[in-house]
Amino acid sequence: MNPLLTVRGAGVRIGDATLLDGVDVAVRTGEVLVVVGPNGAGKSTLLSVLAGDRAPDAGTVTWQGEPLAAVRPGELARRRAVLLQENRVAFPFRVVDVVRMGRAPWEGSSSADRDDAVVAAALAAADVTHLAARRFPTLSGGEKARVSLARVLAQEARLLLLDEPTAALDVKHQTRVLAQARRHADAGGAAVVVLHDLPLAAAWADRVVVLHRGAVVADGAPADVLTSALLTDVYDHTVDVLTHPVTGALLVLPRHGSHERQEVAS
Amino acid sequence: MSAAVEQQRADAAPAPSPAPGPLPPARTGRVTALFTVLAVTLGVLAVVSAGSGQLHVPASEVLGALARGVGLDLGPEPAHPHGYTALWTVRFPRVVMAVLVGAALAAAGAVMQGVFGNPLAEPGVVGVSSGAAVAAAATIALGLTAFGPWTTAAAAFVGGLVATFVVYAMARAGGRTEVVTLVLTGVAVNAVCGAGLALFTFLGDTQAREEIVFWQLGSLNGTRWVYVAIVAPLVVLGLVGAIVLARRLDLLALGERPARHLGVDVERLRVVAVVLVAMLTAAAVAFCGIISFVGLVVPHLVRMAVGPGHRVLVPASALGGAVLLLAADLVARTVVPYAELPIGMLTALVGGPFFLWLVYRTRRQAGGWA
């Protein structure tokens, strides 16, 4: 299948630091692509390149053959929606008004007629309908993250770019977010999700890209990519990969064993 | 995808999203009430203000004179022999100027807070007003008249623009403005502009000195129709521009990157907003001097009443600013018999403590300094 968004040979440098180096990534329709890697591997930088926030110093980014840099901001907003790690709102807007902001790219188009329905559906999908009349600054961290997700969903963009969307969430809502990404991809969209949580990545990804020191070290199905050897090497920490005895699913378990305890003790 | 993974997902996936509930209603009722109250107050205050002063004119005669002036033979004529002339040459231009300047300052405050993402940004506090004042003072002291009566206004615009860009460039880091940085930048800009004003006061002749001193105090005294004609188009243009930007200013509250993700051309929005702030501030400062805190107090009160959405905030602030300045001017020229208080002094007297309270409240809130 033709990829929706293609990154070829992307390099990003800031001063002497190389954040990305020769990265090739293709985002395909119908796919949940999970990006994993240790701190400072370049995950967020890759996401900003995919989002069109940052033009790479080397290489190309194309949306179905069209250079991403040539797409105007308004048009880009109808194609891709981005959820950042940190979500703040400068003034005490109500939750419903924050989610309604997600409809801005469709202002004046025929889709604007559906604004109310889309906003209501997005609030429900992120499980924040009961918070709709609350003011954003009064919410907890996890609630803010879910409201921001609702805003991103209300944007109805074909591509979802989610940067650690599960970081502040409880188990139930972590699962919901990824189920939402799954549903979005199944409905003909695509989702790129940056995750730190390897078990979640194993459970929900169609494809996993492992970044390490700004380069792609693996790209493929979770079962092929998430191996004990590779993860242990990349994270510099022992990671076991097992098979669930009941479901047969992939279990990725960072080892919290005697070795680390000894280090702490010594 | 393996059957096992499918199975695991089926197990783990929560029930489909609950049915969407009804959205909380928009607060159209409160918004309509606010606009109605402000518009009625403005109308009443305008008539009362025009009739008050050393020469008292009853409201009915004020309306009669107004009707006659636009060619309608309605209502009673002012009983006093000079009543009609006094109203049309002194009072009416002054009332119109108060409305224009109040609207300009409050709208400039609302736009500035929106673009800085900070409720403490205000043209007076961050030094835009004094930037405009120092440039205008230069034209007075040096006797510059390159653009005729427009010279002072044009200089005020350029001064305000430079000051706004300086503050903007200095006070922002990573797409946000820390309160401390913003206020300290304001202190620095105000200090430099204060020095500039002092220099031009020193350089100017006696008449220029008097004019410059009157600026720093701020006053609507001596307003003439020709000034109104210069200020009005700037204010109208600035207000229309600010209302056009309103929706994009809402999105900017999410931060620069999220605003860009929603299709806002942030760089262009910033430049346009800064030019609008400078234009509105210059319009206010050009003939009436530094009247601070209007842009701080009014948008804040409006936000408390109807929320922070800029499509309501900007026009409601403009209306509220007009009411506030009209009331302040009425007090300034009637509270002490046969004397006129500088209006800038009055607004600062009320606005200063309000600013303190705002700083205190902001600091108490979690992460309030951001």
From TrEMBL, chain A:
PROSITE patterns for this protein: ABC_TRANSPORTER_1, ABC_TRANSPORTER_2
Residue ranges annotated for the ABC transporter domain, each copy included: 5-238
Gene Ontology MF: a single term: ATP binding
UniProt KW keywords: ATP-binding, Nucleotide-binding, Translocase, Transport
Pfam family, one: ABC_tran
Entry keyword Nucleotide-binding: yes
SUPFAM superfamilies the UniProt entry points to: P-loop containing nucleoside triphosphate hydrolases
InterPro entries, A to Z: AAA+_ATPase, ABC_transporter-like_ATP-bd, ABC_transporter-like_CS, P-loop_NTPase
Top-level division of the source organism's lineage: Bacteria
Name by which UniProt lists this protein: Iron complex transport system ATP-binding protein
Organism this protein belongs to: Isoptericola halotolerans
From TrEMBL, chain B:
Spans annotated as Disordered: 1-25
TM regions (residue ranges): 31-50, 95-116, 128-147, 154-173, 179-204, 225-249, 269-302, 341-360
Compositional bias per record (Pro residues), positions renumbered to this chain: 15-25
Alphabetized Pfam families for the sequence: FecCD (PF01032)
Keyword line: Cell membrane, Membrane, Transmembrane, Transmembrane helix, Transport
CDD domains per the UniProt record, alphabetical: TM_ABC_iron-siderophores_like (cd06550)
Compartments, record wording: Cell membrane
Similarity annotation: Belongs to the binding-protein-dependent transport system permease family. FecCD subfamily.
Protein name per Swiss-Prot or TrEMBL: Iron complex transport system permease protein
Organism whose genome encodes this protein: Isoptericola halotolerans
